[in-house]
Amino acid sequence: MMGPISVTAEAGLDIVRKLASRELEVHGILLRDTDGKKFRYILRGFEDLPKDAARLGDLPPLEPLRAAIGVTQLLQIVSVAQNAAVAASLHRIETRLVAIEERLADIQGRLTRMQTTQTLTLDALRTQPASRLKAAKAAAVVALQHRDRTALIAAGQHAQQAFHDLLEQARHLVRIEEDGVPVALRLPGELADLCESAADAAYVASAIWIALDNQHNAATVTRESAEVLQSIRRKLASVLADPEFLLRRMKADEGRDGELQAAGMRLRNAMQWSIGRALMIEQGLITRDPEHLSLERVKPALGLEFAPLADAGTRR
Amino acid sequence: MTDDPLLSDDLATLLRSFPNDALRDLVGILKQHTSYSVFPARRAYAAHELPADGDFAAHANAIADEMLWWGSHDLLRQFADPPRWKEILISTAEHLGVAKEERRSTLPAWKIEDAIFRKALDAWEHLTPAEREAAMKKAGVDLGAAKGAAVAAAGGVAGLGARQLLAFLAARGAGAAVPFVGPLLAAIGAVWAAYDLAGPGYRVLRPATLVIAFHRRRLREERAASAFRD
Prior knowledge:
The structure holds two protein chains of two kinds. Chain A is built from ten helices and six strands. By secondary structure, chain A is mainly α. The longest helix of chain A is centred in the first third of the chain and has 43 residues. Chains A and B meet through helix 8, helix 9 and helix 10 of A and helix 7, helix 10 and helix 12 of B.
């Protein structure tokens, strides 16, 4: 876990301490300009919370902060929180990858029960993303502690490879068919897990490239994540909308409507998050941390330059 | 038990989630038929009287009641509650020769509807275009002016195979100003005349079930597709 960089408000330090001890988790902070336009500043993990719970003042641990802190200080805390979140996300992704590993094993079991005739490559790929992410995490920790550029490059390569592996597995689920229907539609939860994990891995890779001052690679990997997720969504939407395949879908239907909708939402969120991050990198809002204490720093921009996400909306 | 109305076993719940055009298709079939029962009929007469662009959704419960009434036994319904939709489906599926494992009582209603639907399309597939033409004529379907590449290539709707027919219905039928999903599905239902079903209700239940199955499926597919769109 990274230590704080610099925080002017005591309350800010307290937040960071709580973040470090995992007593407090940062899911998101809502900033509002004087006209009431809503901007949502996203930290990973935020998207699972109801939107309304994101108001800074509504989070009980931040109560003492509300009256005392100014926008600049708040943004510094946001920055620190993000730095902490980067380190936390490495741990989170590792944990997530273990879950993904188990899910992939389950996918194989289910496909066996479905008496699939397809040849799956999932088994061969299953353990690779997890081990690559673990390697990336270990290398990043060493690199950050010792300012070791070589170790950081290795970490970036590991993370990027893990991203591609996960993406390939997600595409594979969409590509292979059972009774003429993409297996992804029969295993929507697994597809969403793979896609979110791919977006997570892209995030780690991009953060490492930013730490190496390679904005181009960072933006490219993040944008690739967004584009592939979008193409997966389009492909599935077109299969679901094509009446020519209605009979096939009818035959293969297991009544997993809720799971399909949830998966669609998760893919949309992962894609939007990737697009938002790619834009922020391209516009120079996410840059290398000059103090080398973390992988990246989000440029304090008085809140108003953060690109609002599509679902943030406005309220007057 | 599901909270999702489109997966519900309860017919009234399902029909309340149907859009106007789907209910219009259903009512189009219900009102064509006369009951010969000597007992009072639970029919949705107010919905029968509506014009094609009327508000059918307001009568969803009454339409569901009428469907259950058609599926009930004249004498039994004097002493007992009307049967549930799934019971009617199981009985209809049995009469139509749907395989036993596809009409088990443990299955949800939508699965039994699907099995009936697939059986109907299978029957359509095995008819010659001339026999299909005759079935459509018997059901009063006039699709001579139906357009589309597949229709043109097949030389008319009667020339379409089951898959293309379904695609034709899904692509052009739903929401069309002139109702033809109902009539066409009624024609497909008429293909089963050879089964000579015992109760008069089956001549209504047969096509009506196809209409319900088709629209339930269509709505679920549209909803799933929209989850993957912006």
